[in-house]
């Protein structure tokens, strides 16, 4: 990997444009600090971790590093276009009883922004090796590895190469897992989206954000107003928009690597579903999906079937979109803590008990349905997620644990629960519980 931190599309974005774009690393640092100080009440530290082999730097957040040293540390890996600031709602809870680390992926946030390889396999390896070099510098022996979106893809690739370092792999709404479906099975894409995709195909995914210059911050607010909603109970200004903008208005290093890894409309050139079986069978895997996300959770159940000799759990968080950790931080945190507790006891998580979850967490989405005089059952279609008919009740595990009379093939629809361990035999155009999926273009952030 070359050390030059340049934009692969430099001919479009000469250095003089930086003065036109209202961004800088200092502004990114300012927005990040405000987010962290607003949400994190525990003492935390941020620092650059130097990688001597590659001569890069990884921007790292640590919490509770010196406490609970007997607990396996938790490591958080963000997704495309993100950074450590987006985990702000999760950090206090997840670090309560163990060391927690979050870092900006190489090429993103405040980490070094090198030129990645144009070969997908090599670019993926460069991400993986940066994590391993970071782990070695941090002197972490083993870890619970949590990845979101692109971070989940990279975390899975890391687990393939360095399985001895991973105690449990948690994949939050992972990108890059399913194979690109045949044309007749693809979700219909509006003509206008296809036209835009054709025009911007030669460029990096967020090139428009940078090309817009002083109008760039306004584009983030206009097209992703939902990002602020995820943090609005604590931040009622433009800090989140500023953070996202400054994360992505810098040299698009990791973004260029992401473009190298994917093909049209965000499908991975090397889908993880074809390789996940090769992950050491001793590594438990937990999938956490948002019920409203554009990511199809069918792949999680496919992997559960393929890795039948290993622990694979799939949870769908009701009412959450692609950013499941920010949309529903409380149930997301509980799911991750459930994994951590199991790791501490050298075992795997117990099945989710839906009735107990319902007592702890309400379901605003379901309450809204009741007010409107409808229920989930009214909206469930024939393409709803089902327990696979070929599985027995014992094989279905937590899918049937709360309903002993439930038969294979019944729709799993615990109407008051935040979670649903359900299966899917086909790819629907809507999420579970009759919820509308997020718009496809939102996958970029």
Mind sketching the topology for me?
Blueprint: H1 25-39, E1 44-51, E2 56-63, E3 74-77, H2 88-94, E4 100-103, H3 120-138, E5 143-148, H4 150-161, E6 166-172, H5 191-200, H6 207-211, H7 216-223, H8 226-229, H9 239-248, H10 253-261, E7 285-290, H11 298-306, E8 312-317, H12 324-327, H13 329-344, H14 354-360, H15 364-371, H16 376-379, H17 393-396, E9 419-420
Parallel strand pairs: 3-4, 3-5, 5-6, 6-7, 7-8
Antiparallel strand pairs: 1-2, 2-4, 8-9
Ends distance: 25 Å
| Largest sheet strand order | 1-2-4-3-5-6-7-8-9
Rg for CA atoms = 21 Å
CATH homologous superfamily, by name?
Alpha/Beta hydrolase fold, catalytic domain
CATH topology: Rossmann fold
Count of discrete domains: 1
- DSSP helix count? 17
Q: Assess the beta-strand content as a share of residues.
A: 5-15%
Task: Based on Cα principal axes, name the global outline.
Answer: globular
Which oligomerization state do the chains in this entry correspond to?
Answer: single chain
Counting DSSP E segments of at least 2 residues, the number of strands comes to: 9
Shape-level CATH architecture:
3-Layer(aba) Sandwich
Proportion of helical residues: 25-40%
Classified by CATH, the class is Alpha Beta
Uncertain spans: 1-18, 363-434, 440-444
């Amino acid at each position: 990997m070359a050390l030059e931190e340049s934009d692969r599309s430099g001919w479009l974005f000469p250095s003089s444009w930086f003065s036109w774009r209202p961004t800088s690393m200092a502004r990114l640092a300012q927005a990040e600090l405000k987010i962290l100080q607003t949400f994190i009440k525990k003492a935390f530290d941020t620092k650059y971790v130097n990688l001597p082999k590659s001569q890069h730097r990884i921007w790292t957040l640590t919490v509770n590093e010196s406490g609970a040293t007997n607990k396996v540390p938790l490591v958080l890996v963000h997704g495309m276009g993100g950074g450590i600031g987006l985990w702000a709602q999760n950090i206090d809870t997840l670090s309560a009883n163990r060391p927690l680390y979050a870092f900006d992926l190489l090429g993103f946030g405040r980490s070094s922004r090198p030129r990645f390889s144009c070969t997908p396999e090599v670019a993926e390896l460069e991400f993986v090796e940066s994590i391993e070099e970071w782990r070695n510098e941090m002197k972490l022996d083993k870890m619970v590895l949590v990845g979101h979106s692109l971070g989940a893809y990279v975390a899975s690739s890391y687990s393939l190469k360095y399985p001895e370092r991973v105690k449990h792999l948690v994949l939050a709404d992972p990108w890059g897992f399913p194979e690109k479906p045949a044309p007749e099975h693809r979700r219909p894409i509006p003509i206008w989206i296809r036209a835009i995709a054709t025009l911007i195909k030669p460029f990096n995914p967020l090139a428009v954000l940078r090309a817009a210059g002083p109008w760039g911050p306004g584009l983030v607010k206009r097209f992703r107003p939902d990002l602020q909603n995820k943090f609005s109970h604590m931040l009622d200004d433009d800090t989140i928009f500023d953070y996202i903008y400054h994360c992505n208005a810098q040299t698009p290093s990791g973004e260029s690597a992401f473009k190298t890894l994917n093909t049209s409309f965000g499908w991975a050139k090397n889908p993880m579903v074809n390789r996940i079986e090769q992950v050491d069978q001793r590594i438990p895997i937990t999938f956490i999906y948002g019920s409203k996300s554009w990511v199809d959770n069918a792949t999680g159940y496919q992997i559960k079937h393929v890795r039948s000799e290993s622990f694979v759990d799939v949870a769908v968080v009701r009412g959450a979109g692609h950013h499941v950790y920010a949309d529903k931080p409380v149930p997301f945190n509980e799911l991750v803590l459930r994994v951590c507790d199991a790791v501490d006891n050298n075992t795997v998580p117990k099945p989710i008990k839906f009735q107990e979850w319902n007592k702890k967490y309400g379901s605003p989405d379901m309450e809204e349905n009741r007010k409107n005089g409808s229920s989930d059952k009214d909206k469930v279609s024939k393409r709803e997620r089902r327990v696979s008919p070929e599985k027995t009740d014992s094989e279905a595990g937590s899918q049937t644990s709360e309903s002993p009379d439930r038969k294979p093939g019944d729709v799993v629809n615990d109407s008051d629960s935040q979670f649903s361990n359900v299966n899917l035999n086909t790819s629907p155009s809507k999420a579970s519980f009759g919820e509308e999926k997020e718009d496809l273009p939102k996958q970029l952030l």
